[in-house]
Design a protein that fits this description.
The chain is of the alpha/beta class. About 35% of the residues lie in helices and about 10% in strands. The chain binds adenosine-5'-triphosphate.
């Protein structure tokens, strides 16, 4: 049985002191408490107890060495340097401790580290009078029956609790601070896979906790592994982990989350994104970086200025990976991953995450992966059942008055006549400004976010929306992916997107972390090509499909990205399986080659190859 890291430390501490009796005297690491941890952090820690653990079953390097300094030692995160007597976990190989990228800075950093939980948006939410408690526990019942499909070789088994995952006491404390009681289904499967050092392509529904699923293993890996000499030179920095995301706001959000998960671990997370002053970001990078969260454009800029080198990268994660490999971003991603100094696939560990993963994109993505595991929690490209979806036929000329009716009704039904947070998606930046203006003059406080606004304006708009000051946010697709805004009750697709996957991401801004949400779409003649995929998606998510939509769907040519969904059914989804069968499925086709299997999310037992897919 696996137990937590805290347990193993307690036991290994006594083992260490015993073994030291017979050997060259060494400092008893487990008794050392760094000065800044002598008060609260350590005092808060639960008393370690229980038997020593064997963590090697899915942990990359076996045994305690990953924690820096041999089996049974207390993790010496980020410590190194001359004369301190501790094993060097730092990547600078025992240098003086003053340089950048220097894990010794980790200890100092922790003294200065701002507590990310103090400025948590969710605390502000409570101040703003939103009724729910801080980060309410996820509704796990909503995920109990979710189908899970995994393909690949030697898949590590899933876990049921965070304690089984053994992320280290510091991270465990942070998980508790986040109020995560147990892992979500994607976390249960993905974290053990990633901790085993495996490459991963993971698909799980919007709002199901993918961020933690890739952040935890990266942070934990950096804490555990003994990276040798990390390159250094001039003003260039050499991060160990790189997380790429398609938008500035999403990068900031991932950065905020990662800072919480890595709080007091000595692992330093820095964000770099366009539209913000680069000098400030350079200064932050110079203070040291272990994990860099970035948008591709700004990262290319930093690489070209030789201010960042990727040659030490051990972990690469692409969030919204299908978007990142779509036409818009693919050249930049290829440049970053293939044409700069990043270690090759197989040398680095690569993880790709999204809620949608079209087959064509999977094929492209496989260029970046080495003998990877494919994981699908829920059906690939499907929306969560937690979102009630409504489609209404609204001609262009009636859209504004129809929206106003909806908002008015919502306000009347809201608590104390309060407007629930509503995200309205439109097609164009101009359209966004014009609708926002119209809403404001009609008594609906609104703001807008789109690519023509300055970064400062975008950030202000988001804050104003989150706080409820302007409870309506009119947005283009820039807000469609990844943004985790608590309390968004309603998503309105004022203009529907052309691609059904974009629709899935847009409506996924509500109904997150087990909570329910509402999504309304205005459909008109110009959306005919979306009729079929939309009707299928709704049906598949147990939504009521209006007869007129079924009618349009039966007449319409297949659209909404025909490369993705023309096969006409949801099903198994690893493109390798389809190809090994020689099937020409343009959709998320089924198939089972004996290495893939599907299981319900609460499945906790052993794995057997050849178990039939949950979809077949
Ligand atoms: N184990 C957990 N317990 C409780 N809440 C969790 C847990 N894991 C994540 N969450 C919360 O769930 C919410 C959604 O998580 P996250 O933003 O990572 O979703 P996602 O799957 O990346 O969504 P998207 O596909 O839209 O990017 C966040 O508020 C996060 O804090």
């Amino acid at each position: 049985m696996r137990t937590s890291w805290a347990d193993s430390v307690a036991n290994s501490a006594s083992e260490t002191s015993v073994s030291n009796n017979n050997s060259v005297p060494r400092p008893i690491r487990s008794t050392y408490v760094p000065p800044h941890l002598r008060s609260s952090a350590v005092a808060d820690a639960p008393t370690p107890s229980g038997p020593p653990t064997e963590r090697a079953s899915f942990g990359g390097n076996a045994g305690g060495s990953r924690w820096g300094g041999g089996s049974g030692s207390k993790p010496e995160y980020g410590r190194q340097g001359k004369g301190n007597g501790y094993a060097a976990v730092g990547r600078d190989g025992g240098g003086s401790g003053s340089g950048r990228n220097n894990r010794s800075a980790g200890w100092d950093r922790r003294e200065r580290e701002v507590n990310p939980f103090v400025n948590d948006d969710r605390v502000d939410d409570v101040k703003q009078g939103f009724s729910e408690q801080v980060n309410p526990a996820i509704n796990f019942d909503a995920y109990e029956d979710i189908p899970v499909e995994i393909s690949g070789e030697n898949v590590p088994p899933p876990v049921n609790t965070f304690a089984e995952i053994d992320l280290g006491e510091m991270m465990n404390q942070n998980i508790r601070r986040c109020k995560y009681l147990k892992p979500t289904p994607v976390q249960r499967y993905a974290i053990p896979i990633a901790l085993a050092g495996r490459d991963l392509m993971a698909c799980a529904q919007t709002g199901s906790g993918k961020t933690a699923a890739f952040c935890f293993p990266i942070i934990s890996g950096i804490m555990r592994e003994q990276y040798g000499q990390r390159a250094r030179g001039g003003r260039t920095v050499y991060p160990l982990g790189l997380i790429l995301s398609p938008t500035r706001e999403l990068s900031c959000q991932i950065h905020d989350e990662a800072k919480k998960f890595s709080y007091q671990t000595g692992v330093k997370v820095v964000v770099a994104y366009g539209g913000a002053p680069i000098n400030q970001q350079l200064r932050e990078l110079e203070r040291g970086v272990d994990i860099l969260v970035a948008t591709p454009g700004r990262l290319v800029d930093l690489l070209e200025r030789a201010r960042v080198s990727l040659q030490s990268i051990r972990y690469l994660a692409l969030d919204e990976a299908d978007r990142m490999l779509d036409m818009g971003f693919e050249p930049q991603i290829r440049k970053i991953v293939e044409q700069m100094d990043m270690p090759n696939r197989g040398v680095r560990q690569t993880m790709l995450f999204s809620a949608t993963f079209p087959r064509e994109i999977q094929r492209l993505a496989s260029d970046f992966l080495s003998t990877y595991i494919f994981l699908a929690v829920g059906r690939v490209g499907s929306s969560t059942d937690l979102i009630v979806q409504r489609v209404e036929f609204v001609p262009e000329s009636d859209k504004r008055s129809h929206l106003m009716d909806l908002l008015q009704a919502q306000r009347e039904n809201g608590e104390h006549g309060k407007q629930a947070l509503t995200l309205v998606f439109v097609e164009t930046k101009k359209g966004a400004d014009s609708l926002e203006h119209w809403l404001c003059i009609n008594g609906f406080p609104s703001t807008t976010i789109h690519g023509d606004r300055s970064q400062q304006e975008r950030e202000l708009a988001l804050r104003s929306f989150k706080s409820g000051k302007t409870p309506i946010l009119v947005a283009t697709d820039v807000a469609a992916r990844g943004l985790d805004i608590p309390h968004v009750a309603h998503v309105v697709n004022f203009d529907l997107p052309n691609d059904i996957d974009d629709y899935v991401h847009r409506i996924g801004r509500t109904g997150r972390a087990g909570k329910t949400g509402l999504a309304t779409a205005f459909f008109d003649e110009s959306n005919l090509s979306l009729a079929r995929p939309l009707a299928e998606l709704m049906q598949e998510s147990n939504q009521e499909v209006p007869p007129w939509l079924t009618h349009y769907a039966s007449r319409a040519p297949y659209g909404g990205n025909k490369n993705r969904r023309s096969g006409g059914r949801f099903g198994g989804c690893d493109f390798r399986r389809e190809e090994s069968f020689g099937k020409n499925l343009d959709y998320y086709g089924g198939g089972n080659n004996g290495t893939a299997f599907g299981v319900p999310a609460d499945y906790g037992g052993g794995y057997a190859p050849g178990v039939t897919s949950a979809w077949d």
